[in-house]
Amino acid sequence: MKEEPEIISEKYLSIFIILVIGGLGSSAIAFYLINASLSDDYPQIWGLVLGALFGLFGLYGLIAVFLIDNLEVYRDRLVLKSITGKTKKVIYLSEIVTWTEIEKENKHQKWKDLTIYTVSNKYKISSSLYSNYSEIRNRLIKGKPRDLEIEKIWHKRNNLYWAIGAFIMGGLCFWSAYHFYADKDSTLSSDSLTTITGEITSPVEISSGAKSSRYIQIELKEYPGFSFDINGVAYAATDADEFVSRVKVGDRVSLSIPTDQYRKKLTKEEELGFWDKTVNYSFIQVYGLQDNHQSYLSTYAYGEEKKDDDKVGIWAFSLLCVFFSGIGIYVLLTSQK
């Protein structure tokens, strides 16, 4: 007579839904990013990198569906099976010498990871995957000692990772604060800009970007394939509402753009460098904007706005540097107790 398992694992259906939807969604994003990056005259490196990362994440999500074990607990053993029912491994309960259980959490959920140790191996079971985790856990650890020392070591190592991460963030914030400080006295010279004039070919509007940032994109008949952008500090210094309300398709505007971008991208007088080709090739930053009626963005307004932005940047990143460094120190000190 065939022996029947005492306990059969029950997986959360939501895990499979998340993995499948996440995998397919990430794959779709990867396809879009890579396709968009290859649509320019030159492949755009950041789109390719992000596309590759999303592609790997999507592939992992789809593969992970087949990697989650089916567990069967018998009177004397734990049998690990693949999603197809093939036996992958057998762990006899008599071989289990100790176990640990670590409680973890993120901003969405809390879960526990049970690790059972044999003389030569170990195996981890997560409560985030199995709805009858507690039943499986109690059967596997029955009569086995818990190794609190291993758990203590895990918590110390985890705290060390958090501290290192906090110090890295603190270092990045310090570098950013120094960058704003070193750049605070720099000015935008009119000699470094070239003014071009063209006819607007598409409606101009205020668009929203990441973290509620705003920007304006202008397309000119004389320079097809290029988008002239007003964003960041330049946008803050622009009379944006007045510009989009007055200027229509067919109107002519004058834009002040970096001379090196003009000579490299528009007139091809200078050779494009690697970064010119692969980072935002079709986008050109605007530092001056006017039409026949008025000026909407001047180098003076940009300079004044940049000074204020630099001050905010110095203080904000300095405070963040202190904050993250303090977290790192606190975590290190508490982990020694």
Topology:
Layout: E1 7-8, H1 13-37, H2 45-67, E2 70-73, E3 77-81, E4 87-92, E5 98-105, E6 110-117, E7 122-126, H3 133-141, H4 148-182, E8 193-199, E9 206-208, E10 214-218, E11 227-231, H5 232-236, H6 240-246, E12 252-258, H7 259-266, H8 274-278, E13 283-285, E14 288-290, E15 295-297, H9 299-335
Helix pairs in contact: 1-2, 4-9
Transmembrane segments: 12-33, 45-68, 160-181, 312-333
Protein name: DUF3592 domain-containing protein
Keywords: Membrane, Transmembrane, Transmembrane helix
Polypeptide structure, described:
The chain crosses the membrane at residues 12-33, 45-68, 160-181, 312-333. This is DUF3592 domain-containing protein. It comes from Pontibacter ruber. This protein is of the alpha+beta class and 337 residues long. It has 2 domains: 1-68; 147-337, Beta Barrel (OB fold (Dihydrolipoamide Acetyltransferase, E2P)). The chain has 9 helices and 15 strands. The strands form 4 sheets. A 4-stranded antiparallel β-sheet has the order 1-2-3-4, with helices on one face. Strands 8-12-14-15 form a 4-stranded antiparallel β-sheet, sandwiched between helices. α1 runs antiparallel to α2 and α4 runs antiparallel to α9. The longest helix has 37 residues, at 299-335. It starts with 6 loop residues before the first strand and ends with a helix.
